[in-house]
Write a structure and sequence with these properties.
single chain; about 250 residues; alpha/beta; Rossmann fold; 6-stranded mixed sheet
Length: about 250
C-alpha cells in the first residue's frame, strides 16, 4: 500500500553560521535591534542566525496551508526547507510525496537559448523526462501564444513573453505537493484569465499546497489552514477564520 502524502516536522531548526564575523562584537551590535533572541553564538563562538526554530507540525493529504508573517519571519526559509534546498540543523523533516516548486519560475532559463530549448531546460529542472516534455511541447507552445518566437533566442523576448513561457512550462507538472511564494500573475488581462484557470486546476489536483502570501483574501479563499510565523517560530496554527483576524486585524 502506498504511503499517504504528508509532511512532518519534528522540532526542526535551521541555523545559518556567519563565518566572517567576530561573534562577540557582532552580537553586541545586533542584539539591540534583534527580537526573539534569534542571533547567538554556537559552541565555537561563531555568530549564528537562527532562521527557524523548533517547528513541529504535520501537513496531511488535502491540506491547503497558507504561510503568513512579516518580511523576515521565515516564510521563504520554510519553503526552502520543505523543498530540500535546506536541511534542518537539528530536529527532523519527513516528506512523503513528489514536490514541485513554483517559487522561481524563471530558474534555469537561458537568454541565449531559444524558447523551445528553454522548455527542455526548465522542464528538466522540474524533473520531467525528455519524452514527457516531447508529449506536451505543443500544448506549452499554444498556451504561451509565442508563435514563431519559440525558435528565437529568449533575449529577443519582452519581459512579458519570457514570463508567459516560464509560466506555461512550470505549470505542466502535476506534483503531489506544490510550493508557492505568492500567487502567480503573469501577462496582460486576457492571458491572466487563462493563467488563473490553469493555476487553479493545478492547485486542485495537488494533494498538498503550501503557499506564502501577504494577501488575506487569497489565504482565506484558498487555504484550510494558516501558519503564522514570527521570528522563525510558529505563533499560531489553525483555521483561517481563527488565525487571520489575529494577524491581519478585524
Amino acid at each position: 500500500m502506498d504511503e499517504m502524502v504528508s509532511i512532518a516536522f519534528d522540532q526542526a531548526t535551521v541555523d545559518f553560521p556567519i563565518y566572517n564575523a567576530d561573534a562577540r562584537s557582532l552580537k553586541q551590535r545586533l542584539i539591540r535591534v534583534a527580537t526573539g533572541g534569534q542571533i547567538g553564538a554556537n559552541e565555537h563562538g561563531r555568530v549564528v542566525i537562527r532562521a527557524l526554530e523548533d517547528l513541529t507540525f504535520t501537513f496531511y493529504d488535502g491540506d491547503r496551508v497558507g504561510l503568513i508573517g512579516h518580511n523576515g519571519a521565515g516564510k521563504s526559509t520554510l519553503l526552502r526547507l520543505l523543498s530540500g534546498v535546506y536541511e534542518p540543523t537539528s530536529g527532523s523533516r519527513k516528506v512523503t510525496g513528489e514536490i514541485a516548486s513554483l517559487i522561481d519560475i524563471s530558474l534555469g532559463i537561458d537568454p541565449e537559448a531559444t524558447g523551445r530549448e528553454n522548455i527542455y531546460l526548465r522542464g528538466g529542472l522540474l524533473g520531467l523526462k525528455r519524452k514527457e516534455i516531447d508529449e506536451q511541447i505543443d500544448e506549452i507552445t499554444d498556451f504561451s501564444e509565442l508563435g514563431d518566437f519559440m525558435d528565437m533566442p529568449l533575449r529577443t523576448y519582452s519581459t512579458g513573453m519570457q514570463l508567459r513561457l516560464a509560466f506555461a512550462v512550470s505549470t505542466i507538472v502535476r506534483p503531489q505537493i506544490l510550493l508557492m511564494d505568492e500567487w502567480l500573475s503573469v501577462g496582460d488581462a486576457v492571458f491572466q484569465e487563462k493563467a488563473e484557470k490553469r493555476l487553479n486546476n493545478l492547485v486542485q489536483t495537488t494533494n498538498i499546497l503550501v503557499i506564502a502570501s501577504h494577501s488575506r483574501e487569497l489565504v482565506s479563499r484558498v487555504c484550510n489552514r494558516l501558519i503564522w510565523l514570527e521570528h522563525g517560530r510558529v505563533k499560531m496554527d489553525g483555521a483561517p477564520a481563527d488565525v487571520a483576524p489575529h494577524y491581519f486585524g478585524g
